[in-house]
Model the fold of this input.
Amino acid sequence: MKPSCAGSCRRTRRGFIDRATVPATFHLVCDDLYTIGWHSNLSGIRSGRIGSVERLRQRAVRVEGGMSVSDDVHTELRRRLIAGHFTPGEKLREEHIAAELDVSRTPVRAALQRLITEGLLEAAPKRGAVVSQWTDNDIEEIFELRILAEGLAAAWATRNMSDADITRMEEMNRDIARAVASGARNFRDIVQSVNHEFHMQIYQACGSARLRNFGTSLLEYPKLLGGFYIYSDNEIQESIQQHEDILHALRARNERWARSSVTSHLSAAFERLKRSRRKPQVSPTPKG
Done:
């Protein structure tokens, strides 16, 4: 039965509902960043502002007990920050964000405060925030947490993952190898996307919602730090081989081997990132 207050809800032209006019039982809901493959929308997010707003509008629905407008703004801004839409040191102004997303400044202010608490933004004077610079300590913390979380997830996945799941992961690894061999100009985009899916499969099979939610949130940060765009072709080949080691361990249903393989793989990725930060950045030569 439709609640009697539903008729009083006012939808703005881009799909948001002004919280001041919405009954307490109605909110906007958007897919959570930690549980969707946002990387598939990466090019759209980078290509322009309107596309990402339209995707948010399409996903937004009214449900009882859902998320608030501030939650939706937080999700969208966090998505853009992780995707590299904003540059370190760039100032985000409440009024500009509010105008773009067609909401009041109140939910924007709340979303910015949450992002400041999460370390993605820093407080700035006059109602705004600045995109945070990443320090070596920040990066080390992210990798150490991910090594612990994903190593445990791989160990637990040996108990739950089906042969079909492992076969799909093997095909993903072959897709990465084919992308590198193709010489396409965008092969690193393909590698980045498929690699994300590969690691997501480990968390999906770990059997723990808490570990999955925590671990998948950490998967996004390597993109912010450069991801496969800092890898040489040889380093990508090394990563492919390390994936093979993980797959062998999963096939063998060996918890210690799986955990060790993931730990080795992520430790190597951390070392590559540290080397890249110690030397001047040179864009990889396009293939083809």
